[in-house]
Write a structure and sequence with these properties.
single chain; alpha/beta; 5-stranded mixed beta sheet; globular; binds flavin-adenine dinucleotide
């Protein structure tokens, strides 16, 4: 299946096409260049759009005194609730410290102690101080800045901005040999074209925009995962969406990206209270506000349902030096008319992170020859049913290096795309809001068969609202539709509660469900599901 789009009017070529310019795409491009291959880096908006620059907390790596990759592995496995692929986790934690050192060598500057040592902090689920951070709560911005500077410094990496990748191209053997893309540009590369390469790496980030409220920026429409699905690749664990409990509530009508209030704020003593000023987390969990993210998100949703409130409150007035420790959050509150030093901050859960994605092996290979995925787009198996805080930037760093090495070691020849008879689809962009609202209501923090079937029925109707007018909004909306369908199908199948997937009607974890759910789509747009055993050490 492919998106309805005009025929390509121009062609570009490079050894490797990297789609996306977040931590995963930028690091992949730099690593590939270290093997002397040419890279075309395409990105659908400005080069610094994407989740990476918004990351607040930091990057996890076992660098501190007394810390070891084994301890990091243990914490990652606990968070993943039985669904992590252990060999992939071992790779993440053991290659992580070196990947972070490489990032520092590329120019990223992290906060330091007075002694000159890198300052390491702790986040929920970590039993050691192992989170590197920059600019207090502006880690992602620093990572993005440093990697972009390194990419701009290499004239052999061609960067194409405002280039929205649409679908995969395949040769006569079914190998992926490039992509179609739409460029808002000038000169010869304008409109729909095709980029042909020996290998294609998808690093298009997350899919938070599937839901009505999200911490993800507007570019996070899951395009890479949707492309992979339409190309016939396996997608795994998509039911595991992490909802962040404390996202600034900007009103019921507010859709799209909302400001995140990092859990480090609760770590420093921030309290959750309701309209009556009651600390409702106390008594619900031994760690109260510092309980795992999914526990806090669920408790907030339940409390809101019980009281009819549309949000709860975060009280940070007792945190000394709040403005200095959290300058980004402080500024963001002020920008929305809230003085956090004097007032309570309204918060509610919102979608934050996709633990699943394009199913790949430990070298980032999907099940389609020529097609790789990296970063939030990929499902390497490291996150299982729930990502451990600050493991995602690390995943992008570690697996991009492996992908580059694998491509360099197994570089296929260029091949030419062939026309494949297949169904085309394009949906009306006006259905986006309905889709997002329906997903938040039916497949949000608290799910049940009834709520998921309601979302599924809505999606059936939404999927009949076709368009014949190709444009960026329609392509993105169609991608959101394919992802929403995959999420609801998997969430309905998984009749248990595990990690970030909470079924009100199946509140226990079941040993029989200790497996990955795969979703696939054929050339006619028919769906099928498969299962894969979790890989133990
Ligand atoms: C507010 C916030 C705070 C976070 N805090 C942390 C944290 O402290 N620590 C941590 O580890 N993780 C954190 N995360 C998660 C982490 O930031 C992301 O998982 C990570 O940055 C993803 O990197 P990426 O390279 O995979 O994708 P992104 O950084 O999202 O980049 C994706 C890129 O792909 C491009 N793109 C998308 N679609 C297309 C298309 N069709 N064609 C061409 N280009 C396309 C985008 O424009 C963008 O350049 C946070 C996320 C958010 C939103």
């Amino acid at each position: 299946m492919k998106l309805l789009a005009p025929n390509p009017g121009w062609t570009a070529r490079a050894d490797v096409i990297v789609v996306g310019s977040g931590v995963a795409g930028l690091t992949t491009a730099l690593q590939i260049r270290s093997f002397g291959l040419s890279v075309l880096l395409v990105t659908k908006a400005r080069v610094d759009a994407g989740s990476t620059k918004w990351a607040q907390g930091g990057i996890a790596a076992a660098l501190g005194p007394g810390d070891t990759p084994d301890q990091h592995e243990k914490d990652t496995l606990v968070a993943g609730a039985g669904l992590c692929d252990e060999p992939a986790v071992k790779v993440l934690v053991s290659e992580g410290p070196e990947a972070v050192r490489k990032l520092i060598a590329r120019g990223a500057v992290f906060d330091k102690e007075a002694s000159g040592e890198i300052s390491l902090t702790r986040e929920g689920g970590h039993h050691r101080n192992r989170i590197l951070h920059a600019g207090g709560d502006a880690t992602g911005a620093e990572v993005s800045r440093a990697l972009l500077a390194a990419v701009r410094n290499d004239p052999e990496i061609e960067v194409l901005e405002h280039a929205l990748v649409l679908d995969a191209l395949k040769d006569s053997n079914g190998k992926v040999c490039g992509v179609t893309l739409h460029v808002i540009g000038a000169g010869t590369r304008d409109g729909v074209g095709r980029a042909i390469a020996r290998a294609t790496v998808l690093a298009t980030g997350g899919l938070g925009q599937v839901f009505a409220q999200t911490t993800n920026p507007s570019v996070s429409t899951g395009d890479g995962v949707a492309l992979a699905l339409r190309a016939g690749a396996d997608v795994a664990d998509v039911e595991f969406i992490q909802f962040h409990p404390t996202v600034m509530w900007l009103g019921d009508a507010s859709q799209g990206q909302q400001p995140l209030i990092s859990e480090a704020v609760r770590g420093e003593g921030g309290h959750l209270v309701d309209d009556e000023g009651v600390r409702f987390m106390v008594g619900q969990h031994p760690m109260a506000e510092l309980a795992p993210r999914d526990v806090v998100a669920k408790a907030i949703m339940r409390h809101m349902e019980k009281t009819g409130a549309h949000h709860v409150w975060l009280d940070v007035r007792n945190i000394e030096g709040f403005a200095e420790r959290f300058p980004t959050i402080h500024a963001s509150c002020l920008a929305h008319g809230i003085d956090p030093l004097k007032e309570l901050i309204p918060v509610a859960p919102a979608s934050h992170y996709a633990s699943g994605g394009v199913r790949v092996d430990m070298n980032g290979r999907s099940n389609m020859a020529g097609l790789y995925a990296c970063g939030e787009t990929a499902c390497t198996g490291v996150h299982g049913a729930n990502r451990l805080a600050s493991n995602s930037l690390l995943e992008g760093l570690v697996f991009s290096a492996r992908i580059a090495a694998d491509i360099a070691a197994n570089l296929p020849e260029f091949s030419e795309p062939v026309e494949i008879p297949q169904q085309t689809i394009l949906l009306d962009p006006n259905i986006r809001k309905r889709l997002q609202t329906s997903m938040s209501a039916g497949a949000g923090v608290l799910r049940s068969r009834v709520s998921l079937l309601r979302a599924s029925k809505d999606l059936e109707e939404i999927g009949r609202q076709f368009s014949t007018q190709p444009c960026v909004e329609a392509w993105e909306t169609t991608n959101l539709f394919h992802l929403a369908t995959a999420i609801v199908r998997s969430a309905l199948l998984r009749e248990e509660t595990r990690g970030s997937h909470w079924r009100e009607d199946f509140p226990e974890s079941l040993a029989a469900w200790e497996k990955h759910i795969l979703q696939r789509m054929d050339l006619e747009g028919n769906w099928s599901a498969g299962f894969e055993e979790v890989i133990k050490a």
